[in-house]
Structure formats: structure tokens, C-alpha cells
Amino acid sequence: MTMPDSIDAVQTLLADTGYVCGRSLATVVFLSLRLGRPLFLEGEAGVGKTEIAKALAQALGRRLIRLQCYEGLDASSAVYEWNFPAQMIAIRTAEAQGNADKDVLQRELFGPDYLIERPLLQAMRPDPAGAPVLLIDELDRTDEPFEAFLLEALSDFQVTIPELGTIKAPEPPIVILTSNRTREVHDALKRRCLYHWVDYPTFDRELDILHARAPEVAETLSRQIIAFVQGLRTEDIFKKPGVAETIDWAKCLLALDVIDLSPEVISDTLGAILKYQDDIARIEGSEARRILDDARAALEPA
Ligand SMILES: Nc1ncnc2c1ncn2[C@@H]1O[C@H](COP(=O)(O)OP(=O)(O)O)[C@@H](O)[C@H]1O
Ligand SMILES: [Mg+2]
């Protein structure tokens, strides 16, 4: 699969996988591919950050390697570990057979057979399909020491394993980092990357996304859903629904054979778009009716 040679080509390529990509996001994706720079995507949960890495891997025919970040993630779980239980068994077996030559055993135990490759090391391995897409997901969940480590790993794409030597990527992976911005990621890391804030989509784009992801939902209902969700996002609530919630909700309504939104249906299915009881309590009933009325009015032809 050849690399896209224009911003339009990026949009087309991603559209073929069902990913709806606006012009500014397509531009930064294009530049990231062209310049070989990591792409840092920040935005609220459920706006399509993780999905773009998946779509890109699929569109380019590359392997997707995902490093899911979490609190306490350290370099060894991100790069490699030694298979300690297997090493123990090998030692026991060698002892039992009485052929425990210390040097031979040591070389074997710290060789490729006992190495567990974690995502960063996997991403440096050559691949016949071309360099993989490395997704470093939800970076804001880790801590500063890990960021510092990552900064280094992303600058030279090589790791040194004391027992095995240095492994260097023949071709650097396509790197996408995401953050839900629960905390600010350090400047130094951001400076190494191209940055893009992924916003909630506009009405038209979200409708396109819904068409792509839930084509079975009828047009009138689809429009009502988007208008309602977009209205809901302007309310003062704790956790605004993402695109993922819009799609989920549409599928719920489809399963319930709903053809037209009503305040009752909305109240019964709010759990698909709002995930906090305080938000649900706030919107249920008269608020839902008001947002729906506004949404209907906005949909009226002028
Ligand atoms: N632009 C888009 N085009 C197609 N689907 C999208 C788009 N944005 C979001 N989605 C849908 O929303 C879901 C959630 O997106 P995800 O990438 O997991 O969000 P984030 O990583 O930003 O929290 C995806 O599974 C996808 O189906
Ligand atoms: Mg995500």
C-alpha cells in the first residue's frame, strides 16, 4: 500500500475504512506521514482519537501495535520483560538432568526464547508489510517518568537490552499518541510531535459518521439523534456524550424500533449517552423535552 500523496488522498483512504476525517485532521495526518513525525491527538473521550490509529493501520495495510497506558506503567512493561517462570523451569530441568553448565545456561536463559516483547519493542521489529502503526493510547494516564522515557524512545527508536545488545528499528513506526487530557502532558514530549486537538464533530460531520457506522438507522431519526446530542453537549453536564455514545444510542433506538424521538423514549434510553447519575437526573423529564424541542426547531427547514 503506497503512502497517500495529498490531504485529499488521506481523507479518501480513511473514508474507505469508515472513518470520517475533517480537513484539518487529514492535514496533520498527512504531514505526520510525510515528515515521519509522531502525531499527538488530544480531545475529550469518544471523539475518535483511538479509532484513527486503527483506521490508518487498516487503510495502509500495516500492523497496529497498541500500548494502552495506565497508572504505574513502567518501561519494562512497555518494552520487554524476561519470562521469569520459564527461566526457572529451565534452570530446574537443567539441574535435574545434571547438565547445568553455568555459562551456557546463562546465555540461553537471556536469549530470544525467554524474551517477552512488549509493544515498543514489537514496533521496532521489521515487518514485510512496512513499519507498523504504534498507538500509544491515553498517555495522560501515566506519569512524568514514563513520559521522559518515551521521549527518548521516540527520538531514536532503539532499545538496548543489556544481555542481547541494541535493537534498532530499520524503519521508524508510524506513531500516534492520544490523551483525554485528564492532565497536561509535558511540553517536551508535545514538541517532538505534531499536535491536533480533536473536537466534537459538527452536525454534518457527525451525521456522516453515523451514516458510516450505523447505516441502518433511518435518515429522519439519524438527524434527530445528532441534533439532540449536539444540543446536549451545550448543556452544563459533567460528562458530555462522545461520538461513540451517539452511535451506541442510535443502535439502541434501532433495536427498540423507534422511528421518532419523544421525551419518553429519551428518558428511557438516556443511559446510552449519559454515564453519570447526576447528569441523567438533571436531563430526564422537562430538560429532555426542552432540548428535543430545540433540536426539532433547528431541523425545521428555514
Ligand atoms: N470521525 C469518525 N469516523 C468514524 N467513526 C468515528 C469517528 N469518530 C468517532 N468514531 C466512532 O466513535 C467510537 C469511539 O471513538 P474512539 O476513537 O474510541 O474515541 P477516543 O479514543 O477519542 O475516546 C469509535 O469506535 C468509532 O466507531
Ligand atoms: Mg481512546
TrEMBL record:
It holds the Pfam family AAA_5. Residues 35-213 form the AAA+ ATPase domain. It comes from the Bacteria. Gene3D superfamilies: P-loop containing nucleotide triphosphate hydrolases (3.40.50.300). This is MoxR family ATPase. InterPro entries: AAA+_ATPase (IPR003593), ATPase_dyneun-rel_AAA (IPR011704), CbbQ/NirQ/NorQ/GpvN (IPR050764), P-loop_NTPase (IPR027417).
